[in-house]
Design goal:
With about 400 residues, the protein is an alpha/beta fold. It contains ten helices and 18 strands. It folds into two domains: about 10-135 and about 340-365, 3-Layer(aba) Sandwich (Rossmann fold), CATH 3.40.50.720; about 140-330, Dihydrodipicolinate Reductase, domain 2. The termini are far apart. This is Putative oxidoreductase.
């Protein structure tokens, strides 16, 4: 596919001045505004729910006055002066807002989850194949520095092959049975964005990016909806303003065998437990061990499953227990100088966006090997997670 000149003429979907959540402004926008970001992306247009909403956001974020304001995905797709579209809307708006641009052959970066359901995801895959659109998906934690470091440690081979791995995850929401008004869709499976797909899904994805995929026939999952009644809280008044019944499980246990590889022993076992909400006091939200022939690696994330979202987060810690000497080694990792130019919440997203821009700039069309995850790769992960949920639904219903 032909390369595109940098900086890419870029349209952002969902950079709102009034949104309940601010992922676009907090995690994406800073990456575009650094000197490196400006060399790769030129914000040319915004697409919001209306032209007026887009104009308001242009003013709020002090974007150039010539930035175009769109309220229609079709109008954006028809603009010949847009190279790449970045989508940050709520998941149930992903499909309708990016489909026209994909059909028009524009390249797209869409946040995870890809879309609300398998039908929409498959449609996007089909349309991208037809048009040649290159689509990146925001599974950015595969390239979080601690995850990259774990891959480096295993690839060195000094610890021998992986024998088993265990992951314990707590979180997904701040509370085990309360949701803020703006996130009540976390308890509505039809929307497509919920703690299983988002919080568990991100961790599950970066764990498998290190260990390799599971043998499909070996996977067993057990899900449970422990707290079906959810209370809804107004974040401004802190008062409970309603109740609703959830149809999203809040406990997931998974066991399976990793595919045999040069770094993984035959039948090496992966065990994962996810529980929504707060852990027992003093228990870390994310603990991951990798048991190898000659040592064991432990990653601990004290501040959350997302690894790092705030400057106040306690750093992720990686240690290796060497069996031959019984010594424990602290393994350091670090942000790049470029990443350190912006707040922590946007650093891994920045790396994905820059890698995607560089790929578009050279036009080689590679997927997943240059610091970003392609649509078909991400669609396979989405189908895997949907399979877990569907199996649970049969028994729950």
């Amino acid at each position: 596919m032909a390369s595109k000149a940098l900086p890419l003429r870029t349209a952002i979907i969902g950079l709102s001045s009034t949104a309940v959540t601010s992922w676009a402004s907090a995690a994406h926008l800073p990456a575009f505004l650094t000197s490196t970001g400006r060399s790769k992306f030129a914000i040319t247009a915004l697409l919001n729910s209306s032209v007026e909403a887009a104009q308001s956001a242009i003013k709020t974020y002090n974007l150039p006055h010539e930035t175009k304001a769109y309220g229609s995905p079709a109008d954006l797709a028809a603009d010949p002066d847009i190279d790449v579209v970045i989508c940050n809307t709520r998941v149930d708006k992903h499909y309708e807002t990016i489909l026209p641009s994909i059909q028009a052959g524009k390249d797209v970066y869409v946040e995870w989850p890809i879309a609300s359901n398998a039908s929409h995801i498959n449609s996007l895959v089909d349309e991208a194949r037809k048009s040649g659109s290159r689509v990146a998906v925001g599974l950015q934690r595969r390239w979080a520095p601690p995850v990259v470091k774990l891959r480096e440690v295993l690839n060195e081979g000094k610890l021998g092959k992986v024998l088993s791995s265990d992951v314990r995850i707590y979180g997904g929401t701040m509370d085990r049975e309360v949701l803020p008004v703006g996130l009540k869709y976390f308890a509505q499976r039809e929307v497509g964005g919920n703690p299983v797909v988002i919080s568990f899904g991100h961790v599950f994805d970066f764990v498998l990016s290190v260990l390799g995929e599971l043998e499909p026939s070996s996977v067993h999952t057990k899900m449970q909806l422990q707290r079906p009644e959810i209370r809804i809280r107004d974040p401004q008044t802190k008062e409970i303003v309603g109740k609703m019944n959830s149809d999203v499980p809040d406990l997931l246990s998974l066991h399976g065998s990793l595919q045999t590889s040069s770094q993984t022993q035959k039948d090496a076992t992966l065990s994962v437990l996810f529980r929504r909400g707060q852990p027992f006091p003093g228990t870390v939200p994310l603990a991951w061990t990798i048991n190898c022939e000659k040592g064991e690696i432990r990653l601990v994330s004290p501040s959350g499953t997302a690894l790092h979202v705030s400057e106040n987060d306690e750093p992720v810690k990686i240690q290796i227990h060497h069996f031959d000497t019984d010594e424990i080694e602290d393994v350091s990792w670090e942000w790049s100088r470029t990443q350190e130019e912006i707040a922590v919440i946007g650093r891994t997203v920045m790396s994905n966006l820059y890698s995607f821009a560089d790929t578009l700039g050279v036009g080689d069309g590679k997927e997943g090997n240059d610091g970003w995850v392609g649509l078909e790769d991400a669609a396979r992960r989405a189908a895997q997670l949907e399979g877990f949920l569907e199996e649970w639904s049969k028994n729950w219903a």
